[in-house]
Amino acid sequence: MADIASDDGVIPPGTRQDNGIPFADAVRVWLRIASLSFGGPAGQISVMHRILVDEKKWIGEGRFLHALNYCMLLPGPEAQQLAIYIGWLLHKTKGGLVAGILFVLPGFFSILALSYVYVLFGNVGVVEGLFFGLKAAVLAVVMQAVVRIGSRALRNRVMVLIAVAAFLAIFVFHVPFPIIILTAAVIGYIGGRAGSHLFQVGGGHGSSGPGLADRDSALGEETPAHARPNLAWSLKISAVFLFLWLAPVMAIVLELGSANVFSQIGLFFSRMAMVTFGGAYAVLSYVAQEAVQNYGWLRPGEMLDGLGMAETTPGPLIQVVQFVGFMGAYRDPGTLSPLVSATLASILTTWVTFVPCFLWIFLGAPFIEGLRNSRALTGAMSAITAAVVGVIMNLAVWFALHVIFSEVIRWQGYGIVVDVPVVQSINVASALLALCAVVAIFRFKLGMMQTLLASSLAGIAWYLVSGAV
Q1: Rounded distance, CA 389 to CA 382, Å?
Q2: Cα–Cα distance for residue pair 14/225, rounded to 1 Å
Q3: CA atoms within 13 A on the CB side of 166
Q4: DSSP annotation string for 1-52
Q5: Are the beta carbons of 37 and 103 closer than 8 angstroms?
Q6: Higher confidence at residue 385 or residue 13?
Q7: pTM of the shown model
């Protein structure tokens, strides 16, 4: 795709035009970052910071954090969007495209390969034991996410109240996730605009401290020519990526009908691309409920299997939705073979999940200077992050019910709908393995990858010893 940059031919005085970084070098660096992007957004952003700021000194600390703060305001995976943003700053649109695409590709191929293994060999003892162990570890990892994000976001009683309300709304009353996020955003926006300090929590996954000064970086502290606001460029790039995002979905719906599994996948994950604030963990509870209870794409335990895949492969954690689409089309292949249908669904799910990220960055990045000191937007983000804590807690409880218990019944009454475990159906081995994973992470501070590996090996060992999981 040709580079779409500022086309008016006018370079503002004093604007830096060349950062001295060869594009080929940047491609190699983005490949390196993509191959090391394990551990969710915190780990991925940490890798980018270490390589781009500390090691290469291509971008200063201030610019890095400013870009991260903007990405935190957007729906979608903030780590991939940060890569697009920095790639765009360094080498215009082609830089953003390369950085964003390379960030996704390793995870896409890894999860596709694991999905094949899952459906073809999932009933083989060693594979069953592997995923049995992964489920227990993923439960501990999600609990860690609750604690990590909660410690940053819940700094006062108002934020705690928002988190509790979000948890009750989704767990007890099954309020749709987008409504919870929108309500929190409105509350935070009003509180921030009113100047209340209770809504100025802020934060993110990034580093703190002085770090590399912008003026000492290769990019410098001046605004690159292509980063200056240009309405014509913004409209052009928006039209291009809006077409790339929605045209395939509309074509599928018109050709196959809205009831077809490909149409459902395209429409559902396109909606998700617009409301996935707060990272993958926040939206996964909603995706899991819809995929299991509404569409029937997955069984309850399979969402944990997919999350285990995403946790142990490079790339954004939200890549787990690829597995959801794969399984949905595998079970409802239509006239195609199951594997062909599932592969095409993987591509479609990935496309509608990540193409919007390029739209958000290329459209909004030139105008972010006006957002830097906005108290209202900071308040909205703080309230959204607090609500996300409650939503992730719902995800942890949902996973725990289906990991530790084999049977769950639904109780309804007085407008309340709650899943209740059948105590007699407890899986003692799974409960003990999950407890060990929790102790490893919280007591002994074992890393996520080490915990996942140890739990997987323990699951395999348990199967070999017991003969069945």
Answers
A1: 11
A2: 10
A3: 34
A4: -------S----TT--------HHHHHHHHHHHHHT--SHHHHHHHHHIIII
A5: yes
A6: 385
A7: 0.73
